[in-house]
Amino acid sequence: MNPIKNFFKFLEDKEGKTPPISLKFIYDQESLTPEDLKVEGNLYLQGTKITSLPDNLKVGGSLDLIGSKITSLPNNLKVGSNLSINGTKITSLPNNLYVGGSLDLRNTPITSLPNNLKVGGNLDLKGTKITSLPDNLKIDGYLDLRNTLITSLPDNLYVGSSLYLSETPLARKYTEREIIKMIEGKGGYIDGGLFP
């Protein structure tokens, strides 16, 4: 048994203490239990050497992965507040992702989003390689598509605040009025302003 596992066993057997989840994530992911997969508050892994997260992880607050070495998100990930993966190498999001707050995907290699994605806050895709959005996309805050390769908007798009489209092929091709008609014609709605 390696020294870390010996230390964890000592904590549990002799001291009656559970090793901190942060140490389990870093040194002994095999020892994670279902009870470990729920974080009541925020989980900040910005700049850490952690390369993966366990399936079914629930974070009650925010999950910050900015600049981390994580390359994919786990199945059944639920984040009660904000999820930030800005500057990571994550290329896709799981189909069953839940984000109660804002979702920050800036400067990632993401090219698509899962179907029926709902974000409780803002969705920031600035600087991504995304070219289209899924139907039935619901964003309660603003949607930032600046400096993306977006060429069309989906059916039933709902944006609770503003839509930012500057420096996109879509904004270069259509006027503001044409974009609004396109959104409304596809059953969508923008509650705030449109900034082409």
Helix content: 10-25%
- Which whole number gives the mean pLDDT? 86
Q: State the end-to-end distance.
A: 60 Å
SS content category: alpha/beta
Task: Describe this entry's structure for a reader.
The chain is an alpha/beta fold. It starts with a helix and ends with a strand. The chain has helices at 3-13, 21-27, 169-173, 176-185; strands at 38-39, 43-44, 58-59, 63-64, 78-79, 83-84, 98-99, 103-104, 118-119, 123-124, 138-139, 143-144, 158-159, 163-164, 189-190, 194-195. It is 17% helix and 16% strand. The protein folds into two domains: 1-32; 39-195, Alpha-Beta Horseshoe (Leucine-rich repeat, LRR (right-handed beta-alpha superhelix)).
In short:
The chain is built from 4 helices and 16 strands.
How do the helices and strands line up, and which of them pair or pack?
Elements: H1 3-13, H2 21-27, E1 38-39, E2 43-44, E3 58-59, E4 63-64, E5 78-79, E6 83-84, E7 98-99, E8 103-104, E9 118-119, E10 123-124, E11 138-139, E12 143-144, E13 158-159, E14 163-164, H3 169-173, H4 176-185, E15 189-190, E16 194-195
Parallel strand pairs: 1-3, 2-4, 3-5, 4-6, 5-7, 6-8, 8-10, 9-11, 10-12, 11-13, 12-14, 13-15, 14-16
Attribute tags:
single chain; 17% helix; four-stranded parallel beta sheet; 16 strands; 196 residues; alpha/beta; Leucine-rich repeat, LRR (right-handed beta-alpha superhelix)
